[in-house]
What we know:
By secondary structure, this protein is mostly helical.
Amino acid sequence: LDDEAARDLVAAYGSHAGDVLTLYRETGDLEAARFAYGVTEEMALTTADLLLRRTLLGYRKGQARYRAEEVARWLKGVLNRDEAAAQADLSDYHRQADLLSPSSHY
Length: 106
């Protein structure tokens, strides 16, 4: 983990940054660790919640929308959703992102 990523973790999670770091060490993927922390510790249940509220991806132009389908599929498995529920979650993410920025930066 580089210094910038470590600073981002502390800025986003404060005293809980170590918890996310532990998940990162288990997964080897910092964003996956953030998603797992969002679901297990912050009770995030939707793609919009994870990408637009629980991680910093919603504030990086284009990054949240880029990962939306991946996150919706990941949540489908973690939360044991059927395909219809996963598609509804993804559609809701796009609706919320469009409300934030009609030009689709999220």
